[in-house]
Amino acid sequence: MLYACDITWWIAYFAEVSRTFRGEKWTVSARARDQFDLHWIYGMDRPGLSKDPTLIHQGSNSGYQAISLACLFGAARILLLGFDFARSGGKSHWHGDHPKGLSNGGAYFGRWTAHMNRLAADAAAAGITIINCSRKTSLTCFPRQAIEDVLCDS
Hints:
The protein is built from 5 helices and 7 strands. The chain is an alpha/beta fold.
């Protein structure tokens, strides 16, 4: 599954994604759904995990929403990659900055982290294991482990 909430992200990356990704593509953006024929779920600006299977809580970022969607789909264990939530190496994302016109998040990292803290607590209470395998991250609400170690344990 590939998830992105912003219509601007889909406009910038849909052609590349269509060439390289064969899984399901999801969004909360009705405009992106209609323009690119994506799977869609309703999103609301509420804290924590949604218990309603028809909607996700948004947490102000696509990573939060992707985790929420995976939880609604019944995931028992979720591995996070690229959840930096901070500038590192002069870049705002592990892959580098987005092109002009797309948000690079910098001003929102603190708010995103606060939302993730609540999401982590709700996921743990629901028995869902979330492991942050990002190489660098400012998130402290999820246990950390190298992706190689997690995959070798599976």
